[in-house]
């Protein structure tokens, strides 16, 4: 753990820090939380969520995008409600994520529904659909979180997408382009190359192709060494590209990790838990100043058995 680090979008005091040699989240000693709730335990800082939201909105203010939190990064209802209350939308990739977002108060018009592999029921829920492009760009990040390279399963090469764009689709209204080239992007250049690819694709289509979803991937500086680009740096570079585009686009950004993560497991931690080795899932706690509350209880052995069919 690297308690002194900051998130990529906020410059404020790190919410996890040592005080008298005891690690704290805001003003609460983690020891107190682990004594009360046990370990392993996911602990989130309300202040860092707030600061990250404000920083993300400020960074992109000039472009007025719909900022959609990528629900895959964490689907805790209290956390989703925090985002909904801040007027964020939600990037959902399954009926289940849409269900969670709606339970948290997401407005249907502020949900971007994308992702690979849809059931028939899920496909019927979609209306306006951006086409996910594969721009053939490989950011220098961990190979498991590269999604924009030619070998990646995500998205269509622009020439194939173009054929789909020209075809008739009874249930779908195709109106935009979508890219997401990977997570923990260590530099802005690959995203800008992908952006150019999406803009070229859109430019050749009629003016009602007015939506551009540029995905997420804004990095969190997990390690003290090196330096990752900040969200304002990404936003500035993106704005410069969009300014040169001949028409105004409805922009969507889908940050996950950069809104949530402080230290190692703020994002994707709980989402990636499983019952492997028959471990009940951990609890989650939200800290605000010197108070805290349980926002998901620790599972019990009964939860391990919940879906069993009794003989
Ligand atoms: C399509 C899409 N959008 C957004 C995200 C969020 O990415 P990050 O958490 O790196 O911001 C992901 C992550 O996998 C994704 O696949």
Return the CATH topology of the largest domain.
TIM Barrel
The termini sit apart by 46 Å
Q: Unreliable stretches, pLDDT < 50, 5 or more residues?
A: 1-9
Q: Briefly, what CATH class of the largest domain?
A: Alpha Beta
Q: In total, how many beta strands?
A: 13
CATH superfamily of the largest domain: Alanine racemase
Looking at the overall shape, the CATH architecture of the largest domain is: Alpha-Beta Barrel
Q: How many H/I helices?
A: 10
Strands side by side in the biggest sheet = 7-6-5-11-10-9-8
Radius of gyration: 20 Å
Short description:
The longest helix is centred in the middle third of the chain and has 15 residues, at 189-203. This protein has helices at residues 30-37, 46-59, 77-85, 95-103, 120-125, 158-166, 189-203, 231-243, 257-260, 301-304; strands at residues 16-19, 22-25, 28-29, 41-45, 66-70, 89-92, 111-113, 128-132, 173-178, 211-213, 250-253, 283-288, 291-296.
């Amino acid at each position: 753990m690297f308690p002194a680090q900051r998130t990529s979008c906020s410059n404020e005091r790190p919410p996890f820090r040592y005080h008298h040699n005891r690690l704290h989240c805001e003003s609460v000693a983690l020891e107190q939380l682990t004594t009360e709730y046990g370990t392993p335990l996911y602990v989130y800082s309300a202040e860092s969520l707030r600061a990250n939201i404000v920083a993300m909105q400020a960074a992109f203010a000039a472009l007025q995008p719909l900022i959609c939190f990528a629900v895959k990064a964490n689907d805790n209802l209290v956390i989703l409600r925090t985002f909904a209350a801040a007027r964020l939308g939600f990037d959902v990739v399954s009926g289940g994520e849409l269900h969670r977002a709606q339970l948290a108060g997401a407005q249907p018009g502020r949900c971007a529904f994308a992702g690979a592999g849809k059931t028939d029921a899920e496909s019927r829920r979609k209306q306006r659909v951006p086409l996910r492009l594969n721009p053939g760009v490989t950011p220098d990040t961990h190979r498991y979180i590269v999604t924009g390279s030619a070998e990646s399963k995500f998205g269509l090469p622009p020439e194939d997408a173009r054929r789909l764009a020209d075809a008739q689709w009874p249930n779908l209204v195709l109106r935009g382009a979508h890219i997401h080239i990977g997570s923990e992007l260590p530099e802005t250049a690959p995203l800008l190359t992908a952006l150019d690819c999406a803009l070229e694709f859109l430019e050749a289509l009629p003016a009602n192709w007015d939506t551009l979803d540029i995905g997420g991937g804004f990095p969190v500086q997990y390690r003290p060494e090196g330096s990752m680009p900040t969200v304002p740096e990404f936003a500035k570079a993106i704005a410069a590209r969009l300014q040169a585009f001949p028409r105004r686009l409805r922009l969507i950004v889908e940050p996950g990790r950069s809104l949530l993560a402080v230290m190692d497991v703020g994002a994707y931690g709980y989402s990636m838990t499983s019952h492997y080795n028959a471990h009940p899932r951990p609890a989650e706690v939200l800290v605000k100043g010197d108070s805290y509350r349980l926002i998901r209880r620790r599972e019990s052995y009964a939860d391990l058995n919940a879906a069993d069919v009794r003989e």
